[in-house]
């Protein structure tokens, strides 16, 4: 088990870097996780992270790419609801990376 300390708070991570407890998440934790991934969080990143957290609260799951694109398009508009846009913010696998930074579990159908 990996442990990081952020502002005096002990935060446990699984071997892939996802938080073990959803309640450990807060914006400063997201910033730390993003820095570990080489990402400087902008307002555009926060829009997606907040949308993901709302999605998780409603559906109790982290979305894979298609549901994520659909949710982003519905809430933030068609220009942002495109996989290319999400990949520009969260390179590689946007659902996995964004979920990790948002303090959520890895999407179930992502390897």
From TrEMBL:
Protein name: Sulfurtransferase
GO biological process: tRNA wobble position uridine thiolation
EC number in record: 2.8.1.-
Function according to Swiss-Prot or TrEMBL: Part of a sulfur-relay system.
GO molecular function: sulfur carrier activity; transferase activity
PANTHER family cross-referenced by the UniProt entry: SULFURTRANSFERASE TUSE
Top enzyme category: transferase
Subcellular location: Cytoplasm
Transmembrane region(s): none
Entry similarity comment: Belongs to the dsrC/tusE family.
Residues at the catalytic site: 110
Cytoplasm recorded as keyword: yes
Domain of life: Bacteria
Alphabetical list of Gene3D superfamilies matching this protein: 3.30.1420.10, DsrC-like protein, C-terminal domain (1.10.10.370)
Organism: Amphritea balenae
GO cellular component: cytoplasm
Keyword Transmembrane: no
Keyword list, A-Z: Cytoplasm, Transferase
